[in-house]
Amino acid sequence: MSTNSRSLSRRALGRLAAAATAAAGGVTLAGCAGRADTASPDAPLRIVANNHVWAEAIREYFGEFEEHVGRRVVMSILTADQLANSYNVKLNASATDIDVMMLRPLQDLLLFAHNDWVADLTDLVTGDRDYDWSDFQEAPRQRCTVADRVVSVPVVTERPALYYRRDLVADLGGPPATLDELMAVSLELADRRNGFFGYVGRGQRAGAVSQWSSFLYSFGGDFTVDDRSAIATDEAIAAYRYYGELLERTGPPGVTNMTLEQAMPIFAQGKAAFYIDADAIYTNFLDPTISTVQDTIGFAPFPAGPAGALGYNIPSWSLSINAFSLLRDDAWEFVRWATSPEMVARIQGDGIPGARASAWADSDTLGAFPPELAETMRIGAERGVDHDRPEVLQVGRARDIVGRPLVAAVLGQDVPPVARDADAEFADFLVRDNRHRGI
Amino acid sequence: MSVLQTGPRQRRTALDGGRAGRRPRTFEQANRRLKWAMLAPALLFVGSMIVFPLLFTLDLAFSDAFGAVNSGREHVGFRNFTDALGDTRRFWPAVQRTVVFTVGAVLLETVLGLALAMLMRKAFRGMRWVRVILLIPLLTTPVAIGILWLLILDPTNGIANHLLESVGLPPQEFLGSVSQSLPTLMLIDVWQWTPMMTLLLLAGLSTLPEEPEEAAHVDGANAWQRFRHVVLPMLSTTLATALVLRSVDALKTFDLLYATKGPGGGSDFEAETLNVYAYGLTFDYLEYGLASAVLVLFTLFIIGVVLVLRRRAGRESA
Questions:
Q1: Residue A16 with chain B: CB contacts under 8 Å
Q2: Closest residue of B to A259, CA-based?
Q3: ipTM at complex level
């Protein structure tokens, strides 16, 4: 190839690059300019939800709402991870194709409110006497309020429950009431060589943090104290050690790779004596198609540690309205309908624990739960701490840091040095996170 | 202006191939414009799908973007790059795992792929079926493969441990173990991608002339000597191409790692490669600035690997 032709091709290449860049800019500008300000009258109300039993239950009643509001409702159901990624991508692009969002208040809400991705519902929830915002339990209500603005409405609440095998503890005087008893009985019942485990639980670094929180509180610790890291205190180290030992000595192999999806089936298949996780998942153990323990399962409150029996009591899922939605009025109508006292009572009557005090006071709705579980839930709601993970913007990073000593404990490593190292990292992280939050 | 807007005389010029004196100039002008008009859809696509995201990523890499990319962000120069390069807790271990995973998996795939290709070189009964079976792992999506192996290798309920125990071997934790995860993932990658290496090398082998090998045979060379000194040098170009293609693909592996180990590549970050780390920074931590810087460094790393492999291949074939 001659020098001349090479220089020509370079020039052509330059032109191509410039044209492509200009085209990209043009497409972007066209995209921005083309955004509509109002929705079509025929546009459906779009709900994006998690593949949770609540979403399946509310979907059954959509016909009533569509008749009431005169608009079609479309619900997309995604797993929790897909949901988070979908919100991240779409809300970053100020997308208008989501109207109502089902989200995890403790995982997402601080960040979403910080980014102005969720609509302010304060006047709507407090200005409607029939709606009765004060009927929602105090802890879930607080978790859905950011900087004195109500930005979400809780739909599902959770507390830890001790799932146990009645047939195995009948001769031992019933389920363990303290963490010491839990350890002792788990060790006694474990037969790991033959594939039977005393205790099964989440052991994956970030995934285990929310369930480990109850152990932390019951040992007298917390993630932060006065906005400073508290994960290397004596109480936190004791909680790390206890949880690590419980899983290492009585749990299944490969537990550090286990979240809810891996741990739950082991108990459901009758291969473990005890399992602590959210009470809202109990239906999985009563379903004969996936469980072999439906006749032998028992439910008990979280066992007491040195500081008492302190589990969490949190709104695990809530509804928010996309701040970029073109159907905000109808979106609020949906949230109002789905979280009204009547609908919460109906959904709770289907066995899904809600956040309204009136529903919990109604014996008809409690009848849907096994009596032992209903009592466990009542006790959990009374004593519960209002968070199960650090209250920060970057919850994912915080859980990764807090979970590091937990994994070290499960692997049988020396906990204090890892906890001190994680504590230093968490302290740095909190400084940056607080700066982002303007604290 | 398009060719349709030129006058009748000029259109004639285009049709008669520019035989008249001043006609070629008009033809060239019209042709040049038509060329751009024809290129426009492709340019629009390339511009919107490749160039803009690339420029946007570069812009983010030099900013402190966090939480939401559409909120205010400040440019911070090379801070994200220095932060990433100074991070010995996550970044450099991720680089190391990326290299170990790629080198280990691709090396095994190449050796096994070459061995299988040599075995399949000569036609045999059922060869067509063997080729179809070889294609199955290639046609399966990595996420499905991840879930499949997760079930097979489950330490408590998986079939792998039942098989091990039935022959008197101790059960293993496989993907549940911090130390066994990366080797196990490399073996899954080998299971999936060895067939591709086999098919590529088989295609290369089928183009080689038979005479040099026959001559070596007549001269008394044994099978290994014929392979080492005759077949392998002739196959080097195909081998180099296959290595580059597979290495780039292995460097970018994400689906399999994420499907089996989840965010962060497991509890002790034991399977966190650069790709998984960048994904986590973006979607779990929402640190778009740092994530973009890591991606830029990762891209430069891949370009570097390709250049090194190509240079080596060029030297060997010369």
A1: 39, 43
A2: B262
A3: 0.82
